[in-house]
């Protein structure tokens, strides 16, 4: 079961394309969801971190780049709250300038 879940996330494949050697994909998916809901994954992670810390084998390296980090839609220069700035009067390029 763990190998099936690891395979899915390592390859990025869809659940329905999980190799047959791992069994029915619905069973793997349902087990993953049950373990997430009941806190099993959190307990496993906590135990692994505690063991690594006790063995003094814990070193964190965190990296992020633009292929995995997405900005919020408003981070790309969206208009801020408040009144809109007034547009300056424009003159058609072919017409005479108004005084």
Automatic annotation (TrEMBL):
InterPro entries: IS402-like_dom, Transposase_6_like
Organism: Streptomyces fumanus
Region feature Disordered, mapped onto this chain: 74-99
Stored Pfam families: DUF4096
Protein name, entry field: Transposase
Residue spans of biased composition, Basic residues class: 74-83
Matching PANTHER family: BLL5188 PROTEIN (PTHR46637:SF1), TIS1421-TRANSPOSASE PROTEIN A (PTHR46637)
Annotated ranges, domain Insertion element IS402-like: 1-45
């Amino acid at each position: 079961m763990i190998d099936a879940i690891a395979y899915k996330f390592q390859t990025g494949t869809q659940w329905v394309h999980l190799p047959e050697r791992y069994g029915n994909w619905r069973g793997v998916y349902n087990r993953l969801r049950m373990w997430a809901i009941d806190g099993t994954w959190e307990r496993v992670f906590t135990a692994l971190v505690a063991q690594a810390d006790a063995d003094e084998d814990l070193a964190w390296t965190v990296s992020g780049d633009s292929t995995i980090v997405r900005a919020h839609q408003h981070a790309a220069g969206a208009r801020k709250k408040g009144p809109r700035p007034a547009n300056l009067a424009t003159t058609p390029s072919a017409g005479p300038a108004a005084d």
